[in-house]
C-alpha cells in the first residue's frame, strides 16, 4: 500500500503545481474560469496530503490573490471557494495560519458574515475559527473587528451545520489565553453562547458549555453581572432534565464557584453529585484531524470527559463543491439578553461587593494619570490588550510621550501589535502626528510592518497624502523596507510592499545605510535588483517612474492659483513700521509685509435655487477687501464655487509660498449653513467647517505653524433650521491632532434664524468691517470682539456672534502700526 500511496501523493503534488500556475494566470480571466480553477485548488487542499501542498501554494501563490476573490459579491460560489481555500490553509500549522492573517483575510472574512449566502457564511465562520485556533494574538485580531454584530444578525438556530460551526468558533474564541481576550470584546457573544447551551444538538451544547466555562473563569464578577437574571434557574432546570450531560454539569459547577453567586444559590439547585466523581480533564494537545463525510466538520464528538477541541479543522470537498446541511428542530426558548443593571441591583448587597466596584471605578486625577502613563505604553508595546483596556479607563486615550509626542497608536504600530492597533483606531485618529509630523502610517512604513499598515489604510478617514516634517508621505517611506526586501530576496515582502504603494524608483537616500550606496552605487530598489543580478525580482516592479523623486522631494509643495473668479486684494502703498507693543513675547509677531493673507469664499448663488440667492454678499466682499487692504493684507476672493472647486482652492491656498512671508491668515466664508457645522456650496453640496479648519492644522500647513489663524463664518441659518438638530447627533469622536493658534468667529449661535436681506451687506459683516476700520489699529483681538458685539447690537439682528478659541495663546493685533507720515489709519 505504501508505494501506491506515495505514487498518489506525487501525482497529486504535480496536480497542485499545475493548478497553482493556472490560478496565477487566471487572475484576469472571467469569473467562470476563475471559479473552475479555484474549485480545483480547493479540492486538492482537502486531500489527506494537504499540509504538504499548503507549503507549495504559499511559495508560488500570493494569498492576497485569493483574498481579492472574496470581494466578488456578485459571485457567491467564487467567494465560497476562495474562503474554503483560506479555511484549509489556516487549518495547517501556525505559520500557515499567520500567512492567512498577514494576507489581510480577517477583515474581509468578517465582512462575509453579512453575506446573503448561508454557505459563504458557514465557510467564513469556519475560516475565522481556524484563525482563532492559531494563536491568542489572532483571537485579539478577530475581536478587534466588529464581528458579533453581523454574526448575531445572521445566526439561525434551526440550521444544524451553522450551529455546529458557530459554537465551535465561540469555543476557540473564549479559550484564548496569554493574553485573555478583553471582557468588553467578548461580552457581545454571551447571549449567543447562552442560547446555544439550550440547542437540541449535543455537540453544539458541549462546545457552548465549554465556551461558557472559559469565559466565566477568565472574567468572574463582570461575567456574572452580564448574565440574564433568569439564566441561572433555566440552566439548573436543564441540568435536572439531562443529569448525564457532563458539559452542562461543568457549566453549573462553574456558576456555583464564581464569586457573588451566593445570593443566586437557591436558584441554581443542581443535582450533579454523580458529576462530582468525574474529573474535568483538559488535554493540551489538539485532536487529530481525521477524514469526515462531505459537508460535515472534521470534529470528534466530545466523549465522557471534557476534551480540548481541535483548534483547526479543514473542510472536506463535496461532489458539487458545496457543503450539505441538515435542519435541527426549531429552538423555542427565548434568547437570554444581557441585563447588567437588573443583575447588579440584585447582587450588590454587601460591603465587599461595593468595595470591589469602587476599586474598578476610573481615577482621572492628574497624579494617577502620570503614574499609569508609563504602564499603558508598556502594555501597548507588549500587546497586552486586556491591560491596555483597563489602564485606559484611568488615563484615557490622549496620553503622549513627552520627548517624541508619540501616541499610543504610534507605539502599537512601532511594535507591530495589530490587535492593539485595531482597538486603538476606535479611539485615536489615524491622522494624528508626533513631533516629527509622522502619522502611525509613516511609522508603519518606516518599520516595514505591512500588516498594521494595511489596517491603517483600511480606515476611511486616513489621509494618504499627509506629509511629515520632511515632506514625505508614507508611500515614500516604504522605499526603505522595499530596499531591504530586495537585498534579502524576500519575494513575498516585495509583493506586499509594491501593493501598498512602494516606489522602486524612489531615491532612498538617508533611509538606508550609506554603505550600500557607496559599495554598490545604488540608491533605488530597482537599481539594487539589477546590481545584485536578481532578474526574478525586476518583473515584480511596476513600470519605471519618469519623475525624479529625489528632486521632487527636496522642494516644498508649491502651486499657482489660477482658479475661477479670484480677484486679488490690493496692498496699501504706504510703508508701515511696527509699533513697540507688538514685540512683546506674549503677542503674535505681526511685523511682516504683507501683514497677512485673507481668503474670502462668498457663496451668493446656488444651482437651480434662485430663492436662496444672497444678494448682499457682494457688498460684503467689497467692504472686506477695502478694510483688509488698508491694513496691509493681501489675498483672494472667490464667488459661488462648487464643493470640489472649494476643496481645490483651499488646498492650493494651504500650499502657497506667500504664507511663509505673512504674519497671519484669515479665512472668511459666507453662505447658508446648518448650525455652525456645515455650509452650502454653489452646487448645493455641504462642506463642514471642521474640514476647513483641519486643512490648516500644523501638520497639514507647516507654513502657518505658530502663526495666528482666524476663521470667520457668516452663515444664514433660516433655510436649514429644520435640519439643525441633525448636527448634534454624531458618532463617537476619536483623539485627533488639536488645532493650534486658531480662533473661530461665528455670525450666530447656529440655532437662530439669520437672514441676509440687505443689499448693502449682511449685518454681521457690516458690523465686523466697521469695528476693524475704527479700532483695529490700536485694539487687541479680545477687545475688538467686545466692540464687535456692541456694534452688532446696532443692526437689530436677533442673533449674537460667537467666538471659539483653539489654543490661541497670545494677544493678537490686526494692524497695530503707525504710518510713516505719522497719520493714524482710518
What's a quick, concise take on this entry?
With 826 residues, the chain is an alpha/beta fold. A hairpin with a 5-residue loop joins strand 5 (678-680) and strand 6.
Q: What is the element layout, followed by pairings?
A:
Elements: H1 2-25, H2 31-44, H3 50-60, H4 63-69, H5 76-90, H6 94-102, H7 105-111, H8 118-132, H9 136-144, H10 148-154, H11 160-174, H12 183-186, H13 190-197, H14 202-226, H15 231-241, H16 246-257, H17 273-276, H18 340-347, H19 351-360, H20 366-382, H21 385-395, H22 408-414, H23 418-424, H24 440-447, H25 450-457, H26 474-477, H27 479-487, H28 491-499, H29 514-520, H30 525-531, H31 549-554, E1 576-578, E2 596-602, H32 617-630, E3 634-639, H33 643-654, E4 664-674, E5 678-680, E6 686-688, H34 689-694, E7 709-716, E8 742-746, H35 763-775, H36 781-793, E9 802-806, E10 817-819
Parallel strand pairs: 2-3, 2-4, 4-7, 7-8
Antiparallel strand pairs: 1-10, 4-5, 5-6, 8-9
Helix pairs in contact: 1-2, 1-3, 2-5, 4-5, 5-8, 8-11, 9-23, 11-14, 13-14, 14-16, 15-16, 20-21, 20-22, 22-23, 22-24, 24-25, 27-28, 27-30, 32-35, 35-36
Amino acid at each position: 500500500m505504501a508505494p501506491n500511496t506515495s505514487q498518489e501523493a506525487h501525482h497529486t503534488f504535480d496536480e497542485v503545481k499545475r493548478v497553482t500556475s493556472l490560478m496565477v494566470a487566471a487572475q484576469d480571466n472571467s469569473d467562470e474560469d476563475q471559479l473552475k480553477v479555484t474549485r480545483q485548488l480547493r479540492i486538492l487542499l482537502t486531500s489527506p496530503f494537504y499540509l504538504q501542498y499548503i507549503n507549495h501554494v504559499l511559495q508560488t501563490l500570493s494569498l492576497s490573490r485569493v483574498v481579492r476573490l472574496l470581494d466578488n459579491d456578485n459571485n457567491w460560489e467564487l467567494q465560497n471557494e476562495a474562503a474554503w481555500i483560506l479555511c484549509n490553509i489556516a487549518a495547517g500549522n501556525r505559520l500557515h495560519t499567520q500567512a492567512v492573517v498577514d494576507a489581510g483575510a480577517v477583515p474581509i472574512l468578517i465582512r462575509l458574515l453579512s453575506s446573503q449566502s448561508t454557505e459563504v457564511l458557514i465557510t467564513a465562520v469556519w475560516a475565522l475559527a481556524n484563525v482563532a485556533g492559531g494563536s491568542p494574538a489572532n483571537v485579539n485580531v478577530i475581536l478587534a473587528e466588529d464581528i458579533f454584530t453581523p454574526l448575531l444578525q445572521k445566526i439561525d438556530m434551526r440550521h444544524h451545520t451553522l450551529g455546529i460551526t458557530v459554537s465551535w468558533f465561540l469555543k476557540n474564541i473564549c479559550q484564548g489565553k496569554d493574553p485573555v481576550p478583553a471582557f468588553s470584546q467578548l461580552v457581545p457573544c454571551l447571549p449567543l453562547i447562552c442560547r446555544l447551551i439550550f440547542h437540541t444538538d449535543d455537540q453544539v451544547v458541549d462546545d457552548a458549555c465549554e465556551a461558557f466555562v472559559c469565559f466565566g473563569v477568565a472574567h468572574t464578577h463582570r461575567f456574572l453581572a452580564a448574565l440574564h437574571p433568569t439564566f441561572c434557574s433555566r440552566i439548573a432546570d436543564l441540568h435536572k432534565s439531562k443529569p448525564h450531560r457532563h458539559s452542562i454539569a461543568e457549566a453549573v459547577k462553574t456558576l456555583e464557584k464564581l464569586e457573588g453567586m451566593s445570593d443566586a444559590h437557591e436558584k441554581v439547585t443542581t443535582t450533579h453529585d454523580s458529576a462530582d466523581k468525574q474529573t474535568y480533564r483538559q488535554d493540551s494537545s489538539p485532536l487529530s484531524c481525521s477524514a469526515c463525510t462531505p459537508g460535515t466538520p472534521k470534529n470528534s464528538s466530545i466523549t465522557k470527559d471534557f476534551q480540548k477541541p481541535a483548534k483547526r479543522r479543514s473542510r472536506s470537498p463535496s461532489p458539487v463543491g458545496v457543503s450539505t446541511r441538515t435542519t435541527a428542530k426549531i429552538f423555542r426558548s427565548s434568547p437570554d439578553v444581557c441585563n447588567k443593571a437588573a443583575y447588579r441591583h440584585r447582587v450588590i448587597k454587601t460591603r465587599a461587593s461595593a468595595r470591589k466596584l469602587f476599586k474598578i471605578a476610573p481615577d482621572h486625577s492628574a497624579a494617577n494619570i502620570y503614574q499609569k502613563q508609563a504602564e499603558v505604553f508598556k502594555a501597548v508595546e507588549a500587546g497586552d490588550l486586556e491591560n491596555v483596556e483597563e489602564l485606559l479607563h484611568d488615563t484615557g486615550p490622549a496620553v503622549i510621550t513627552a520627548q517624541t509626542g508619540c501616541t499610543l497608536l504610534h507605539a502599537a504600530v512601532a511594535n507591530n501589535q495589530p490587535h492593539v492597533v485595531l482597538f486603538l483606531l476606535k479611539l485615536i485618529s489615524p491622522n494624528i502626528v508626533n513631533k516629527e509630523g509622522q502619522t502611525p502610517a509613516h511609522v508603519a512604513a518606516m518599520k516595514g510592518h505591512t500588516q498594521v499598515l494595511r489596517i491603517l489604510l483600511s480606515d476611511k478617514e486616513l489621509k494618504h497624502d499627509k506629509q511629515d516634517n520632511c515632506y514625505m508621505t508614507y508611500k515614500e517611506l516604504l522605499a526603505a523596507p522595499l530596499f531591504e526586501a530586495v537585498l534579502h530576496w524576500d519575494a513575498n515582502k516585495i509583493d506586499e510592499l509594491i501593493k501598498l504603494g512602494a516606489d522602486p524608483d524612489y531615491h532612498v537616500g538617508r533611509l538606508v545605510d550609506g554603505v550600500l550606496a557607496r559599495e554598490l552605487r545604488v540608491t533605488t530598489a530597482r537599481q539594487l535588483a539589477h546590481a545584485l543580478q536578481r532578474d526574478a525580482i525586476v518583473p515584480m516592479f511596476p513600470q519605471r517612474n519618469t519623475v525624479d523623486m529625489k528632486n521632487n522631494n527636496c522642494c516644498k509643495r508649491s502651486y499657482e492659483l489660477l482658479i475661477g473668479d479670484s480677484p486679488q486684494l490690493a496692498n496699501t502703498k504706504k510703508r508701515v513700521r511696527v509699533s513697540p507693543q507688538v514685540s512683546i513675547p506674549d503677542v503674535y509677531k505681526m511685523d511682516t509685509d504683507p501683514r497677512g493673507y485673507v481668503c474670502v469664499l462668498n457663496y451668493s448663488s446656488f444651482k437651480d435655487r434662485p430663492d436662496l440667492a444672497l444678494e448682499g454678499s457682494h457688498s460684503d466682499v467689497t467692504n472686506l477687501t477695502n478694510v483688509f487692504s488698508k491694513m496691509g493684507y493681501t489675498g483672494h476672493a472667490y464667488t459661488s464655487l462648487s464643493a470640489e472647486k472649494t476643496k481645490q482652492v483651499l488646498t492650493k491656498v494651504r500650499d502657497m509660498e506667500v504664507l511663509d512671508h505673512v504674519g497671519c491668515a484669515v479665512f472668511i466664508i459666507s453662505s447658508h449653513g446648518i448650525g455652525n457645522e456645515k455650509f452650502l456650496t454653489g452646487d448645493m453640496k455641504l462642506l463642514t467647517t471642521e474640514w476647513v479648519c483641519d486643512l490648516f492644522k500644523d501638520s497639514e500647513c507647516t507654513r502657518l505653524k505658530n502663526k495666528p489663524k482666524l476663521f470667520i463664518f457668516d452663515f444664514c441659518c433660516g433655510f436649514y433650521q429644520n435640519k439643525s438638530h441633525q448636527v448634534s447627533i454624531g458618532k463617537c469622536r476619536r483623539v485627533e491632532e488639536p488645532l493650534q493658534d486658531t480662533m473661530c468667529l461665528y455670525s450666530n449661535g447656529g440655532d437662530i434664524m439669520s437672514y441676509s436681506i440687505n443689499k448693502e451687506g449682511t449685518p454681521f459683516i457690516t458690523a465686523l468691517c466697521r469695528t476693524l476700520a475704527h479700532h483695529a489699529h490700536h485694539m487687541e483681538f479680545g477687545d475688538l470682539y467686545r466692540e464687535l458685539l456692541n456694534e452688532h447690537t446696532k443692526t437689530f439682528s436677533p442673533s449674537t456672534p460667537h467666538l471659539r478659541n483653539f489654543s490661541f495663546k497670545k494677544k493678537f493685533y490686526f494692524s497695530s502700526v503707525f504710518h510713516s507720515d505719522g497719520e493714524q489709519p482710518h
